Amino acid sequence: MDTNQYLEMFLEESKEHLQACNEQLLELEKNPDDLAIVNEIFRAAHTLKGMSATMGYEDIANLTHKMENVLDAIRNAKIRVTSEILDVVFESSDALEEMVIDIEQGGSGKKDVEKLVTMLNQIEAGKSPLEAVHEKMEEVQTADDSEGLVYDDFEQTVVSQSIEQGFHAFELKVILRDDCLLKAARVFMVFEILEKAGEIIKTYPTVERLENEEFDNQFTVVIVTKEDADELQAKVQKVSELEKAEIRPVQFQSAAIETAATTEAAITPPVSETAKQPAKKEPAKTENGAAKRSTNAHSANKTIRVNIDRLDVLMNLFEELVIDRGRLQSIAAELQNAELNETTERMTRISGDLQNIILNMRMVPVETVFNRFPKMVRQLARDLDKKINLEIIGAETELDRTVIDEIGDPLVHLIRNALDHGVESPAERIAAGKPEEGTVTLRAYHSGNHVFIELEDDGAGVNRARVLKKAIERDIVTEEIAETLTDKQVAELILSSGFSTAEKLTDVSGRGVGLDVVKSTIESLGGHISIESKEGQGSLFQVQLPLTLSIISVMLVQMQKEIFAVPLSSIIETAIIQNADILNAHNQRVIDFRGKIVPLVDLREIFDTGLPEEPEELKSVVIVRKGENLAALVVDSFIGQQEIVLKSLGNYLQSVFALSGATILGNGQVALIVDCNALIK
Amino acid sequence: MTTEVENKVMKTIVFQLLDKEYAIEVDVVQSIEKLLLMTITRIPGVPSYVKGVINLRGMVTPIVDLRNRFDLPEMEYNDNTRIIIVNLENFDVGLIVDDANDVIDIPANALESQPEVVGSVESEFVAGVAKIEKRLLVMLNLDNVLRPIRNVNADEN
């Protein structure tokens, strides 16, 4: 089967399922008795198994199958969840991930999983997985080698569905003569005949092994066909050097009852009856249902990958279209042709929707970066022998794709650092009167034109004396200057480049390994990193990143004929005030806003738009804030709320007062974005 | 027939400002746009020669009026007025000129580095003058013409 066209989809979905597995496993570790979680993992593993089997990745299918058995045993309360078992399952999912990545990079997805499979088998058998490593794994071999083929649920579904549609499903066992020379050639001939007759859904051994002549002198093919058994058998037997071809209808032996099923297999009812037998049909049906359910779950996050450059091109082309749309609108307005007006209106509406879609395509929740951290923290905590609880807040915060791609590595660095140098060992923590388990919080949120990502821990914090000592040793600061530095400045010393050149810094209870790399990466993105730390209480690393090309919500306001955008994140509310409400304090006009004195800032003055001739009785104001401080911006009128794409003014116009960028409006015109932070002292 | 005596030739775009012809290297020119088709958004608080920004196929591009920059008398924009989009190392800027319609090869030896007479244009803006047949072309030093604008107010904050 040519599976290349499905490869992308397979990779994408496998990753999703593995991610789901990982997340749920971490959950399971916290609540070992919650069987609902086991079910979730089972479902993910199950789908992955079916997919990989269909795609011909036997190793993945094999390993997931064993994983599934273990999960099944847990589900049926045969074995209890222990961290030992979870370690093996985690290791398996790591191995699966490696294989998937291998496939993604053009590999065959093969990996020696025997050891893991053995361990999983042991767990399933109720033994400790560690014993398994030493034992030989004969059981595994025999399980697959039995006379009856084992069908997974996907194959069962295929078979039962084909039968419902009037096809027959046969197991065709081909035995070659002992003196057969070119076994692979015979296999090929048999396959050729069968492929004309119907669809091959499974072989034993695998196709690959057959092609490599890695089999004795017999093989089994499962085929779905419209032809009947005798006809097919006769055709196959025409191939020379064939001992014989046995044919029989497909019989299901579910994986769980594979050993017990041999006796049942002897009584082989004809295919047509199989289909009608209610007892046989029942499991097939439920499987069907399960398959449908999981496909539904997929459709929610079915994805395709698009090169970001293409999206850029699309976006720019679209913006040109918008300009022409604006022109068309004005032409239509002039001509007053009803039909033209109608068409233009429709086009305007559709292209508006289109614009939203294009803009949103570039935004990715920061979750895609964050979701690899729980597992990493778990592993690191084990390696370091520490107890750490990772909390993630704001994973849904959306960021432009280009930024997302870059921030992963710096964050990994920061988290490692927090775990290694920040959080103390359980003993130290107890001695310091803290809970045994350290808490590390990863937080993301939007603020203004920036995204903030914070990493906070309740560990030891930066040890001022030691950091200063190091810094002086390394000539980063002089002793005189060192005296005058604030705690914050001292903490930030660990980001300086000389600081991290030390090969070993574990004797410093602060931090410092390679953080200069983090700093330079973040700065290359136009971002900023700062540290706040209290000795003995923990540290907060704050990474501020610009939304280089990002969508933000703004309030569009009008002054004279000009349109400005005020970021919604800065706005508290809008109001209409009367001239009588304006008070004077120290030559500054202020208003009383809910009991607070708020200075009035006339944007028309600041932006030099030319003042209106007569003072109006009513004024429109936008109340904005910077931290605790408020200001009331006076504007001519409000246009409304809108999502816009943030664009920089470029390097020619560096730091223009009170403007943080520009955007292109629906009519193709540029509107400037007001930087409220600059307007409030 | 072309004379291959001089092998070093600079290809330039020639444009008009008032009664003089100026030239910039063709390499830095990205495109030439009709000004009347563009809507310029004014930017408050910048030097008056920065007319504002335009939407150039999705890119917000600042526009500099060269007449203003060179302290030449202002003129109403008309159908011939062009915006030459230049592509410098760190940024794109559009230059408003009276007209732009010529591409001329200037042999390197035709360029005089010390301009004797350059009218009202500040000499720091001029890289040299070339006399091609009867035309006098002023080569611009774009790096000096387009020094990035930093706002003093913003720095105080």
TrEMBL record, chain A:
<keyword id="KW-0418">Kinase</keyword>
<dbReference type="InterPro" id="IPR003594">
    <property type="entry name" value="HATPase_dom"/>
</dbReference>
<feature type="domain" description="CheW-like">
    <location>
        <begin position="551"/>
        <end position="681"/>
    </location>
</feature>
<keyword id="KW-0547">Nucleotide-binding</keyword>
<dbReference type="Pfam" id="PF01584">
    <property type="entry name" value="CheW"/>
</dbReference>
<dbReference type="InterPro" id="IPR037052">
    <property type="entry name" value="CheA-like_P2_sf"/>
</dbReference>
<dbReference type="InterPro" id="IPR035891">
    <property type="entry name" value="CheY-binding_CheA"/>
</dbReference>
<keyword id="KW-0145">Chemotaxis</keyword>
<feature type="domain" description="Histidine kinase">
    <location>
        <begin position="299"/>
        <end position="549"/>
    </location>
</feature>
<feature type="domain" description="HPt">
    <location>
        <begin position="1"/>
        <end position="103"/>
    </location>
</feature>
<dbReference type="InterPro" id="IPR005467">
    <property type="entry name" value="His_kinase_dom"/>
</dbReference>
<dbReference type="InterPro" id="IPR010808">
    <property type="entry name" value="CheA_P2-bd"/>
</dbReference>
<dbReference type="InterPro" id="IPR036061">
    <property type="entry name" value="CheW-like_dom_sf"/>
</dbReference>
<dbReference type="InterPro" id="IPR037006">
    <property type="entry name" value="CheA-like_homodim_sf"/>
</dbReference>
<keyword id="KW-0067">ATP-binding</keyword>
<dbReference type="InterPro" id="IPR051315">
    <property type="entry name" value="Bact_Chemotaxis_CheA"/>
</dbReference>
<dbReference type="Pfam" id="PF02895">
    <property type="entry name" value="H-kinase_dim"/>
</dbReference>
<dbReference type="InterPro" id="IPR008207">
    <property type="entry name" value="Sig_transdc_His_kin_Hpt_dom"/>
</dbReference>
<dbReference type="InterPro" id="IPR036641">
    <property type="entry name" value="HPT_dom_sf"/>
</dbReference>
<keyword id="KW-0902">Two-component regulatory system</keyword>
<dbReference type="Pfam" id="PF01627">
    <property type="entry name" value="Hpt"/>
</dbReference>
<dbReference type="InterPro" id="IPR004358">
    <property type="entry name" value="Sig_transdc_His_kin-like_C"/>
</dbReference>
From TrEMBL, chain B:
<dbReference type="InterPro" id="IPR039315">
    <property type="entry name" value="CheW"/>
</dbReference>
<protein>
    <submittedName>
        <fullName>Chemotaxis protein CheW</fullName>
    </submittedName>
</protein>
<feature type="domain" description="CheW-like">
    <location>
        <begin position="9"/>
        <end position="151"/>
    </location>
</feature>
<dbReference type="Pfam" id="PF01584">
    <property type="entry name" value="CheW"/>
</dbReference>
<dbReference type="InterPro" id="IPR036061">
    <property type="entry name" value="CheW-like_dom_sf"/>
</dbReference>
<dbReference type="InterPro" id="IPR002545">
    <property type="entry name" value="CheW-lke_dom"/>
</dbReference>
